[in-house]
């Protein structure tokens, strides 16, 4: 993966965060100052007041009020008589999301401005910026830091490009030299974060929005977007879109306007909020205005701004099964719902995709993990799977009838592993297979027997956590009909 893979960036209306991208490509310090101008330092009270007046909320997915985070850190610092640490979460570990990487690679100084504002206001000990080890954004960020002086020592910490590595607690653990996984219990970073100090942790876009607001002031900032959710929103539009892009749009923009400008064929459904989000129907999508409230009206979530139309030419159930398998493998393995429940959910969804009547099993597995995990991963995965059953009901029925939906799995829902990136696939030599059925007994997660007693399995790359089971199935085949394909060499 490289910075060249970041999708094009565009805007609805006048750009703010993405201002100057068209003209300069990437804004170095001089270009950044020319486009955005300067800003005045703020006290902690002024910082809180500004964040309150613009209704600034975290843009990493949870949408927590930024002002409340700052207040909590200020109170903790006073009570413990300790300085704070500012943490910028720019890891963006979810495969469909690119909006933070777009800003990292093209407008890094805006992220640094926001972090510098917070650090100066709170008299911080240090600024730490977490980025993924996928090679996207780190070089641009380092170059930006070399061009300027920050109000306190600032460093970049590289974390594994995994789904769970960007969770707040996992990022703090990684910065502290521990495993890059959620802590398994509720730990408030405002009380005990990096190096045990009170820590203000927020997403890269959040700090960028803060930097914009500090320049414009609350009145001008609030002049764009909805009164209750002012400003712009950064979105990643992918999936079936013929012109995938990172889009900056004012809140309140009709969702269809953004999808149409990206050439998106919604098909039977649209995923909003990412892999912990929710599927909505094409009809629901037509009613949504881009905002937290707009998505909530149809039971969805804005999350980190991912919009993934499935399109009309791909198998939605097969795509969903691949993602649930991936999410099961991304578990930290710290609690039963993740360690046992998510693999059960992945098996059930895969069985539905292969033509089994396993909807009841999917609902049961999702119900057993709900509200019981040490973090939000089980709940988010269950929500993703259950909403797919509702939105793609016709496809589920077609698969259960044994006829299938007639569409193939094309990787519309992106994953970090593919055959081209080194993943293996199962293959069957039909001239050898005698239908013994041993393979399905050894690896029920991925292999079932069809109506004639022969093995059926997805014709898609295997997630790493299923490779051992697949290899065992290959080894027990008495006819030597089953094999694992070798991965395509990467360049």
Q: Which strand order does the major sheet show?
A: 1-9-8-12-10-11
Give the structural class: alpha/beta
- Terminal-residue CA separation: 11 Å
Q: Would you give the CATH topology of the largest domain?
A: Rossmann fold
**Whole-number total of structural domains:** 4
Largest sheet: 6 strands, mixed
Unreliable segments of 5+ consecutive residues? none
Strand content: 5-15%
CA radius of gyration is: 23 Å
CATH class annotation of the largest domain: Alpha Beta
The portion of residues assigned to helices is: 25-40%
CATH architecture of the largest domain: 3-Layer(aba) Sandwich
Number of strands: 16
Family: Belongs to the complex I 51 kDa subunit family.
Pfam family, one: Complex1_51K
InterPro entries: ComplexI_51kDa_subunit, Nuo51_FMN-bd, Nuo51_FMN-bd_sf, Nuop51_4Fe4S-bd, Nuop51_4Fe4S-bd_sf
GO molecular function: 4 iron, 4 sulfur cluster binding; metal ion binding; NADH dehydrogenase activity
List the helices and strands and how they pair.
Blueprint: E1 9-11, H1 21-24, H2 29-36, H3 44-53, H4 66-80, E2 85-90, H5 99-106, H6 108-122, E3 126-132, H7 138-146, E4 154-159, H8 168-175, E5 199-203, H9 204-221, E6 225-226, E7 229-230, E8 232-237, E9 245-250, H10 255-261, E10 269-272, E11 278-281, H11 282-285, H12 292-296, E12 306-309, H13 316-329, H14 336-353, H15 359-369, H16 377-391, H17 393-400, E13 426-428, H18 438-442, E14 448-449, E15 455-456, H19 467-476, E16 482-484
Parallel strand pairs: 1-9, 2-3, 2-5, 3-4, 8-12
Antiparallel strand pairs: 6-7, 8-9, 10-11, 10-12, 13-16, 14-15
């Amino acid at each position: 993966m490289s910075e060249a893979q970041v999708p094009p960036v565009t805007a609805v209306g006048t750009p703010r965060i993405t201002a100057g991208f068209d003209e300069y490509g990437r804004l170095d310090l001089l270009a950044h100052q020319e486009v955005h101008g300067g800003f005045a330092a703020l006290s902690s009270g002024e910082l809180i007041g500004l964040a309150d007046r613009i209704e600034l909320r975290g843009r990493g997915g949870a949408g927590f009020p930024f002002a409340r985070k700052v207040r909590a850190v200020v109170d903790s610092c006073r009570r413990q008589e300790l300085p704070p640490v500012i943490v910028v979460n720019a890891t963006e570990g979810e495969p469909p999301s690119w909006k933070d990487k777009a800003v990292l690679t093209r407008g890094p100084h805006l992220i640094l401005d926001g972090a510098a504002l917070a650090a100066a206001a709170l008299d911080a000990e240090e600024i730490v910026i977490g980025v993924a080890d996928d090679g996207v954004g780190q070089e641009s960020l380092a170059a930006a830091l070399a061009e300027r002086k920050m109000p306190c020592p600032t460093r970049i910490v590289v974390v594994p490009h995994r789904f769970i590595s960007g969770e707040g607690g996992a990022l703090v653990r990684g910065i502290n030299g521990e495993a890059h996984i959620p802590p398994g219990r509720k730990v408030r970073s405002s009380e005990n974060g990096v190096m045990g100090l009170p820590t203000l942790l927020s997403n890269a876009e959040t700090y960028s929005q803060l930097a914009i607001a500090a320049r414009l002031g609350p009145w001008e900032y609030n002049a764009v977007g909805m009164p209750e959710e002012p400003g712009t929103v950064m979105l990643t539009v992918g999936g079936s879109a013929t012109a995938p892009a990172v889009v900056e749009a004012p809140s309140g923009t009709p969702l269809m306007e953004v999808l149409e400008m990206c050439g998106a064929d919604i098909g039977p459904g649209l995923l909003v909020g990412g892999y912990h989000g929710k599927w909505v129907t094409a009809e629901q999508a037509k009613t949504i205005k881009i905002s937290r409230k707009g998505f909530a009206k149809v039971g969805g979530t804005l999350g980190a701004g991912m919009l993934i139309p499935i399109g009309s030419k791909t198998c939605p159930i097969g795509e969903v099964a691949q993602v649930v398998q991936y999410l099961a493998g991304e578990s930290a393995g710290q609690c039963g719902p993740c360690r046992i429940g998510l693999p059960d959910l992945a098996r059930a969804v895969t069985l539905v995709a292969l033509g089994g009547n396993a909807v009841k099993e999917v609902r049961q597995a999702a119900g057993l993990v709900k509200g019981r995990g040490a973090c939000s991963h089980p709940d988010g995965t269950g929500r993703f799977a259950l909403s797919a059953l509702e939105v793609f009901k016709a496809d589920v029925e077609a698969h259960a009838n044994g006829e299938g939906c007639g569409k193939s799995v094309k990787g519309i829902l992106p994953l970090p592993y593919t055959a081209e990136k080194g993943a293996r696939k199962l293959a069957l030599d039909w001239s050898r297979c005698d239908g013994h059925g041993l393979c399905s007994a050894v690896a029920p997660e991925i292999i079932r027997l069809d109506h004639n007693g022969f093995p059926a399995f997805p014709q898609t790359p295997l997630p790493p956590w299923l490779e051992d089971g697949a290899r065992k199935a290959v080894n027990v085949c008495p006819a030597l009909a089953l094999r694992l394909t070798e991965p395509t060499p990467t360049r």
